[in-house]
Amino acid sequence: MKITNQFIQIEGFKASGIYSGIKKDPNKKDLMVLYSELPAVSGNVFTQNVACAAPVHLSKSNAESHYTQAIVVNSGNANACTGTQGDHNAQLTSSHLAELLNISSKEVIVASTGIIGVQLPITTLIESLPKAVASLSSDGFENASEAILTTDTFEKKTSVTFNLNGQDITISGMSKGSGMIHPNMATMLGFFISNINITKELLQKAVSESVSNSFNMISVDGDTSTNDMVSVLANGSAGNQLIDTEGLAYNQFKDALSLLMIESAKLIAKDGEGATKLLEVNLVGASSEDVAKKCSKAVISSSLVKAAFFGNDANWGRIVCAMGYSGSQFNVDKVDVAFESQGGLLKVFEQGAGLTFDEELALQVLKQDMVKININMNDGECNAQAWGCDLTYEYVKINGEYRS
Amino acid sequence: MKITNQFIQIEGFKASGIYSGIKKDPNKKDLMVLYSELPAVSGNVFTQNVACAAPVHLSKSNAESHYTQAIVVNSGNANACTGTQGDHNAQLTSSHLAELLNISSKEVIVASTGIIGVQLPITTLIESLPKAVASLSSDGFENASEAILTTDTFEKKTSVTFNLNGQDITISGMSKGSGMIHPNMATMLGFFISNINITKELLQKAVSESVSNSFNMISVDGDTSTNDMVSVLANGSAGNQLIDTEGLAYNQFKDALSLLMIESAKLIAKDGEGATKLLEVNLVGASSEDVAKKCSKAVISSSLVKAAFFGNDANWGRIVCAMGYSGSQFNVDKVDVAFESQGGLLKVFEQGAGLTFDEELALQVLKQDMVKININMNDGECNAQAWGCDLTYEYVKINGEYRS
């Protein structure tokens, strides 16, 4: 299995990314179309936020179609908190694109990201769709992955290839997100395509499971957006025998998809607003998967833990404290904590008690741009990983000084 | 009913606050004793954190005694994550104080706040107890309320007086906390005394209910400490008829206690680390109390909302978004949001849609040191209030730069 930070083209998929006029800066692309020429099934996960945006409402419904042939995304405007006009605009987007592509509007997934509470400039968007469709090409993914960004500082492209009983399977993806971002800017988005031949049901299952171990295990600031969405399209062009049961082939695909989504999630955490370092919690020895996930998520979400890492402070007390309020039951007297990076390994807490450690080594370990928080609960066989970033002046600046 | 920010003395209660040598700076008191000469019942609430500190373990057990005659608190060391030695040290503290006061060690509540993971300098503490006991006096509450502080920037004293069928009832309290504070410093503490005559069972009920509407509705950074504790002692010296059923008298007392705890909670929120303003969520019209509490707590806890207020940004999108991920079901199209302060009233969101507003007025409303976030869910009869503060550079500095 091979993972890269490139977007590998897949037969039958085309994409484009253009500037339509939604963003103010004409140098920033803001409209993306992804199109599958072959019939493709999709697996999707949507935000749990009750105040979810109009495109999320529509896409949830459209995702029930057997086939999904296109994804259209605008950046610069979230079409969230926009009432019935917002719903209408999302529908107009899907129906106009469907007409241009000669597909059913039910086969279109719509996503938006950007400012909340402002109506989408729908005329501008619709008038730009023919250009976006005319620009569709098999090497259009570079432009496409650019067009879904808002305040991200870099594009998040990932691909994985593996061999399934002699067939080369590829999954390629583009993601977006760097926290709840710029004032009123929001959203984590992920769009993936694959040539694998798999049923819609099993694709959905693989997507749901993979998201729970990847995108659901990152936290930049604990705020869940109104627009979060992950979609995976599979067109079967690899020609492998249809995966319609949970066997070896399904597991191979799911493992590859999970790894790819974890890689994408880490890119998002790394690009967290104002972040200076990527944090990874590796928690082992939990009594249940629920405990493992809750504890690791509590640690990565704690403002105090995040601020301590910004200050290169080996503050294990905050880590144990966050585990303690995670809602999980465990015995703190069994817990070990260590920090690990290119700078070395620093054990700070063992069997419920703090260890004395060398402050020089601590600084050496913590000042790196990727630091692992290794936790052993010594209480069972369950593990979890979570990713986040440090809390910095820059985060407060980005999120507090927009209007002042 | 009259609430003040002074500590009103109550017959039969004495207190002292001295420097014992736990803190480095001899100008900062670090040992407090509160003593009830008359038999007193207590109501208590302890942290839910699984990794709770040794004094919390001990005090939970001691709180089951019918009478509670003394409270001893040290600041500067949390005695948390200190294993069996920590438990032993908490027990030594209670037994030595009990001997000096000639009471049972089970009648002593012990609390600690300060650095996590370092053993309490128990010899220093025990050797200072005779001095603390010798200093006990009815006007010792000023020193006492000073001795429980860590990084707080001001003392948090509150009292309420009311008339119960001809008897003057007083409740007086001292609180402590300004977020999970200084690296390794933690904890919200509240100690209250009253002359009311009430059964232990009903006192406990009143305390639990009042805490849920006050201290449980504040958030500085979302981190629940290992040492949080609230204790209320009532010695019956007012001579009122024993309150042993939930009638009018009970309700009067509970209302007074709730108001007092809300006032104390607001002082803690106002003193949040690095805070420049106090935020108050007034949420009305929720379909259930659970929805009201969850939504208001989510808003006050959101890093994005808090950062927006630091920047005087009328960012209603983040407020609606936080309500959306609170775990509550509601219809966003019914929600109204307004901001209110000495600077005026600013309506920003009505019936699920953003309103255009005057930016000048917005700045005027938001730049005050106390801003209300008024939310009407227009969906029922339930209300909730929550308090917090803005997220500032100073917060990141306090919590990130301790060791670097």
Question: Overview of this structure, please?
Answer:
- 2 copies of one chain form a homodimer.
- Chain A is of the alpha+beta class and 404 residues long.
- Helix content of chain A is 32%, strand content 27%.
- In chain A, strands 10-17-12-16-13-14-15 form a 7-stranded mixed sheet, with helices on both faces. In chain A, strands 1-7-8-9-11-4 form a 6-stranded mixed sheet, with helices on both faces.
- The longest helix of chain A has 23 residues, at 248-270.
- Chain A is globular and about 70 Å long.
- Chains A and B meet through helix 8, helix 9, strand 15 and helix 11 of A and helix 8, helix 9, strand 15 and helix 11 of B.
List the helices and strands and how they pair.
The structure is a homodimer of 404-residue chains.
Chain A: E1 2-4, E2 13-18, E3 31-36, E4 41-46, H1 54-62, E5 70-77, H2 83-101, E6 108-115, H3 122-134, H4 141-147, E7 156-164, E8 167-176, E9 189-194, H5 200-213, E10 218-219, E11 229-234, H6 248-270, E12 278-286, H7 289-301, H8 303-310, H9 316-324, E13 336-341, E14 344-350, E15 353-354, H10 359-366, E16 370-376, E17 382-389, H11 393-400
Parallel strand pairs in A: 5-6, 9-11, 10-17, 12-16
Antiparallel strand pairs in A: 1-7, 2-3, 3-5, 4-11, 7-8, 8-9, 12-17, 13-14, 13-16, 14-15
Helix pairs in contact in A: 1-2, 2-3, 5-6, 7-9
Task: Give a brief rundown of this model.
Chain A is α+β, with helices and mostly antiparallel strands.
Give the overall pLDDT of chain A as a whole number.
91
Strand tally of chain A: 17
Under the CATH scheme, which architecture of the largest domain in chain A would be assigned?
4-Layer Sandwich
Helix-strand sequence of chain A: EEEEHEHEHHEEEHEEHEHHHEEEHEEH
Q: Tell me the strand order in the biggest sheet of chain A.
A: 10-17-12-16-13-14-15
CATH class group of the largest domain in chain A:
Alpha Beta
Shape type of chain A: globular
Number of helices of chain A: 11
Do you know the CATH topology of the largest domain in chain A? L-amino peptidase D-ALA esterase/amidase
- Give the assembly state of these chains: homodimer
Structural class of chain A comes to alpha+beta
- State the separation between the terminal residues of chain A, measured CA to CA: 49 Å
Radius of gyration of chain A: 22 Å
Percent helix of chain A: 25-40%
What proportion of the residues of chain A form beta strands (DSSP E)? Answer: 25-35%
Query: Which pair of protein chains has the largest interface, and what are the residue counts?
Result: A-B, 70 and 69 residues
Poorly predicted ranges of chain A (pLDDT <50, ≥5 residues)?
180-186
When the domains of chain A are counted, the total is 2
**Major β-sheet of chain A, in short?**
7 strands, mixed
CATH superfamily of the largest domain in chain A, by name, is L-amino peptidase D-ALA esterase/amidase
